[in-house]
Structure formats: C-alpha cells, structure tokens
Amino acid sequence: MWCAIHTFHKLHNYPLGQMQRISTVITLVSIWPSTMIISLFPYRELLPWAMASTAWGFFLCSFQVHEKSVLLPLLPMTVLLGSERGLGTEMRAWIGWANMLGVWTLFPLLKRDELRMPYAVLTLLWAYLLGLPLTSLSLYFGRQSRKGELKVLTKMLHLAFYAAMIAWHVGEAFVPPPEDKPDLWVVLNVLIGFAGFGVCFLWCSWQLILRSGLMEDYFGVRMRIEAAN
After folding, report:
1. What is the DSSP code (8-state) at residue 65?
2. CA 88 to chain centre
3. pLDDT tens for residues 164-175?
C-alpha cells in the first residue's frame, strides 16, 4: 500500500518514526475484524479464512514489506482448495486468480534473477490445472459459469485484471519506458497488484463474516453456499 501511495505522494518527506506508527495503527485496524470474528467463533473451518484475511492486512498495511511476503496470505487461501466445496467454481476462480496475480507481481523480481522460464511454465501449469484464463475460459463462460456461482461483477473484475496482466507483459517486453520514467512498468505492476490485493483482502474478510454466521445471527441475513459441481 505504501509503495503505491508513494507513487503519487512522496512519503519520504515524513519522519520514519511517524510513518511506522501510522502503518502500525492502520495494520491493527485492518486485522481487527478478522481477529475478533475468529475469537468469537473459533471454528476450525474458519481458521484459513481468518489467517488469509489477517495476512492480507499485514501485507498491505505493514511498513516496508518484501514482495515475497505475498506468499503468506496466498498460502491459507490455497489451502482452501482442499476444503469442502473448495474445487467449486467460485473458490477456484477467486483463489486461482489471487495466485495468478500474486506471481505476476513477483515477475520483476523473478526477471532480475533470470527465472522467466520457470515463471512462464509454472504459471501456465497452474492455469491449466484450475481451468483459468490463458488456458481456459470455462469458469467464466462455459457450462460451469451458467450455474450461477460467479456473479457478473466477479467475472468482469477477474477478466479485467487478467487482461491488464497480459497487456502489461506485452508492454514490458516490447515497449521501452520513457527516459524520465525508467521504472514505469514496475510502478504499473505495483499499482495493479495493490488494487487486486485489496480486492482479495475484502473478499476473504467478507467470506469470513458470512461463514461465521455473524450476519445470520445478528442481522437476519441468510447465506447459501451451493454444492460444488
């Protein structure tokens, strides 16, 4: 988050101690709902959701985190594929998309370490195994999508990010950045990644709230989780 903000508003103008205190407060605020829910509803099936939500909060809001720290929230999200209905359309679409976005944001780091070929091979393998774009559009336009597990807004959101990632790769490979903006492609990578990770954080947090029964118990909102195909 701070790297994305720094693109438009230079944070080095503020004292380091002040920035650390601000980031600590924002981080605590971001993880407070998830920690409270898992404390009130300490169910085993909610633990991966709580871990994913809090890890996204730490990754997005903590001060000076490394790019590879994105693996921390992606781990509990990926574990959910092995849960009940974990291979349903909605879960595969969201978790698959989050992992694709995560590894894409690591590309500048992987490129510097000459790992472009493993990146391409493993990314395509992941997409193939889960039926994701680049290898298949069945989750969004096929028979599975017609059963209504994925909302239209979700389809539009995911496909927009997939298109942005592909366009970024094409631009990064063939269009040199301007001389006065040598880090243009890296900055765009950060901004797109931050937006997507923010969506992941909100989705995991919302799923935790729904699955805890909090909305049902206190607001009379009924949740239905369709059976996996």
Report:
1. -
2. 18
3. 999 999 999 999
